[in-house]
Design a protein that fits this description.
The chain is of the alpha/beta class. The protein is built from four helices and eight strands. The strands form two sheets. The chain has a six-stranded mixed sheet with strand order 1-5-2-3-8-7. The chain has a two-stranded parallel sheet with strand order 4-6.
Amino acid sequence: MEINILSPAAPLPVTRAWVMSMTIRSFKGRRDVEVHLFRPSWSEAEEAALDSHGLIGEPLSPGTSGDPSGSRRIILEAFTTEERDQLVAYLKEHYASRLTGLVCAPLDFPVPLGLTPLSAMDEGKSIGLIRFERIPHYQLPFPTRGLYDLSQHRPIVDAQAQAEG
């Protein structure tokens, strides 16, 4: 498993600033499935304490308005450096043979206005969630979820047929 922890280009404006993704070698009949990791919940006190002044920027599309609550939630979904390191250690211990990669990167600040947080995504036919906190050996002090979209990855059967053909 290759682990890439990208360094921030500038000092981070808040401690909750790390986003993570992992790539699962084989998952639900697909190969190299990318899973975006996030915190699905936080305390009301933590949400109230987040001063988003200067952390949220303009919308991605000029001239559009956006709701700042989604962009605030993106920051709240992010991990602290300590949580990032705990999660990396957990994944190395329990899933190293099943993962091909793990990427940790700082959020780009300011976060654009009007983005949809991962915790707001609905599960469906190809989009799903891994709920790590339901796994018996998951003992970290914070909940973690992983969002994946199987439609973004070709079935293993197709990949094998192309390799043989």
